[in-house]
Amino acid sequence: MTEFNKRDNLANKDNVERIDELVSDINSILEKYNIEKRINKSMIRFNADYIGNILYVKDKTLSHIIFNHYFPKPNKKTFYHYTTFQNAENIIKSKKLRLYNLNKRFSDGEFQAFYEEHGMDGYKDGKVIMDVDCSTKGIMSDIYYISLTGSGYGTIHNNLWKDFGEDGEGIRLEFSVTPKTDDFREVYYSKNNDETNIPLLKNMFNSIKNKYGKPLNFTNSSKIGSFYIRGKFKNENEYRLIIKRDSDDYGAYHLEPNVTNNSELISYIEIPFKNKFAEFELKSIQLGYECSDDDEIELNQWIKNLDIKPNIINKANKEE
C-alpha cells in the first residue's frame, strides 16, 4: 500500500467518524461572523492531503457563502474607466476591452498576499497537483481582469486621474455594465493597513488546520484572491470583471491570450463590448484636465463610426 493510499484510507475513516464534527466547526465559524447560511456533510469532506469541497463534492455551498458575503454583486449600473489617451482611442475605435491576466499585478503582491495572509497552505509555489500548476503565477496566468471604479466625481476622483488617467492627459470612459456571469464584483478592501486579512477566512483556515492537521481548500479560492486588495487602495473604489479561462461555470477557454512577457507569464485577452461575460455600453467620455483643444477634435473623429454616440462631457476640472 502506498503512502498516499494510507492517507486516503484515513481520510475515508474520518468521513465516517468525524464529518459531523467538522461540519459543526465550520458552521460555528460562520455563525461567529453573523453569516446565516450553513453547510451540511454533503458539502465538505476529508481528502488524503486536505479538507475541502474541490474533489468528490458536487455542492459548492461553502464557496458560494464566502464569496457572496464578502464580495457582493454591484448594486449600481454605471462605472468608470480611467485610462491613457492612446488606450481610450483603441477601446473606442475597436469597441473592445483588453483584460490582462493577474500576473501583470504580480509585483504588487496583491494575489500572493491573499494566500500568505490567510495561511492558505494548500497552495504552494512550484507544485503541480493533478496536472494543474498550483504555483501563484500558474494560477494567476489564467485569470484575466478589467478594473472599473464607482467614482466619477468628487474629492476622490483627482487621485484616479493622477494614478490611471495620465495625470489629467488621459480620458475617463463611463460604461453601463450588464454582467452575464457571477464574476463582476465589488473588490474587498482590508479594513486598514495592519489588519490585512479577511477575519473569517483566517479563522477558518487556521482552526481547521490546527485541529485536523490538514489545510482547508475550497473551490473559488483563486477567484476570491482576485477580488482582495489591501485597505490602503480603498480610495480607488474598485470593481472588477474577471474571466477565468479554466472556469467550469462558463466557457472561456476559447479565448486566445496574447503574450506580452514570456518570462513573467503576462498576457491579455480582448472582448467586444457585447460578449457572453458582460455587456458594456459606452455612455459618456470625458477628457482629462490637461487635454488640449486638438485632443477634443481628435476624440470627435473617433466616435464618428459608433452606432450609438456617447455623450461628450466637459473637460475635467483639476480643482474638482
Short recap of the structure:
By secondary structure, the protein is an alpha+beta fold. Helices cover 32% and strands 24% of the residues.
Would you kindly provide a written description of the structure presented here, covering whatever features stand out?
With about 325 residues, the protein is an alpha+beta fold. The chain has one domain (about 75-315). The chain is built from 10 helices and 17 strands. It has helices spanning about 5-15, 20-30, 60-70, 85-95, 110-115, 135-140, 155-165, 200-210, 220-225, 295-300, and strands spanning about 45, 50, 80-85, 95-100, 130, 130-135, 145-150, 170-180, 185, 190, 215, 230, 240-245, 260, 265-270, 280-285, 310-315. The protein is elongated and about 75 Å long.
Record the SSE blueprint.
Layout: H1 3-17, H2 19-32, E1 45-46, E2 51-52, H3 61-70, E3 78-83, H4 85-94, E4 96-101, H5 110-117, E5 128-129, E6 132-133, H6 136-141, E7 143-149, H7 157-164, E8 171-179, E9 184-186, E10 188-189, H8 199-212, E11 216-217, H9 221-226, E12 228-229, E13 238-244, E14 258-261, E15 266-272, E16 278-287, H10 293-302, E17 311-313
Parallel strand pairs: 2-11, 10-12, 16-17
Antiparallel strand pairs: 1-2, 3-8, 4-7, 4-15, 5-6, 7-13, 8-16, 9-13, 14-15
Helix pairs in contact: 2-8
| Number of separate domains | 1
Rg over C-alpha atoms, rounded to the nearest angstrom:
22 Å
Distance between the first and last residues' Cα: 71 Å
Which H/E pattern describes the elements?
HHEEHEHEHEEHEHEEEHEHEEEEEHE
What's the tally of helices? 10
**Number of separate strands:** 17
Overall pLDDT, averaged?
88
- Structural class estimated from helices and strands: alpha+beta
Uncertain residue ranges: none
Major pleated sheet = 6 strands, antiparallel
Strand order within the widest sheet? 9-13-7-4-15-14
Net shape: elongated
